[in-house]
User: Fold this.
Amino acid sequence: MVTVAEKIKQELPNAKKWRQSNPGIDWFNQEYKTDEGKIYITNELLNSVAYRSLSRVAMLLYQDFLSKRIMKKVSKKRWVCENNGKIVFTVTEALKKGYSRDQFRNGIDELQSKGLLDITHQGKGGRKPLKGMSDVSLYFIDDRWKKYGTEDFRPPRNPRVKDGRQGRGWALINKDPKRKKEIIRKRNETIRKKL
Assistant:
């Protein structure tokens, strides 16, 4: 059996020969950007019950939230998230990344219920922007997941509130079956005319 040290000794002469025959080229890919953002997931989080029980969509969504952090180095080995509690991830942005509205909503609910995410401010979706900035939801990457599945686990501080506005949009149309049939009939006629 070949040890790691012996394997390295075998490879070093090959590396030296390769460098001599390829001057000016290094082992690493020159086109790879080393200053691009990185996401770090600790072993504790990776092996936690909360993280392991996430659905595929919620896991991808969580990684997207992690990529939105602005990290600042405060000491040699310590980093702090500067924008925690002010992370913006809009539905429009989620749609561009390939999530459906339901996947985005359900993913946030799942991340909240497992202690990985919390909402610091719930925006008013559907409102037009006022002076260039709409009222968007702000998110906080939480560490309640450490106690997920135990008696000490705390519920989210600010759970997502379902929009209960009645008497507008599809909620109103769904209450009146005749009106709904008429709208669907008109929509189908318009589609047929376009074809």
Remarks:
- The mean pLDDT is 80.
- The CA atoms of residues 168 and 174 lie 10 Å apart.
- Helices lie at 4-21, 43-46, 49-52, 56-67, 91-96, 101-113, 169-175, 177-194.
